[in-house]
TrEMBL record:
Name this protein carries in UniProt: Mannose-6-phosphate isomerase, cupin superfamily
Top-rank lineage group of the source organism: Bacteria
Amino acid sequence: MIRRILNNEKILAIIISTDFKDHGVHFFTPDDFSQQLAYMRHPSGKIIPPHVHNPVQRDVQYTQEVLFLRRGRLRVDFYDEGRTYLESCILKAGDVILLASGGHGFEALDEIEMFEVKQGPYAGEADKTRFAGITSAEVIFPGPKESE
């Protein structure tokens, strides 16, 4: 299952459930995203030709990050650009999320292990603005809105 979290038709996040399986290559992101996310499944013996990546000048305005949840459950809270809370979802082990725009906060519901991948170089505290989030009593779980 693929779920897109939207706000005014803008993609805030793309969540790929651990249950997603399909043959071939599937890109989940629009071509203009600075972080590209794809799923690949190939049969034994499939050849992917060797290649190098060419230097291409890119203009990246915002950090987009991908989280790979390896173990545990993680609540993700979504906010719009104005820091207004929108909704939450729970990721489970094996899920992947691309955080594309807006704001986000997290609560580990279990002990978690995860990987984070984002653009560099890291700008430290200049890379983000922290703000007060919601409490557990304010969480809204609206359920899936868009799936593939």
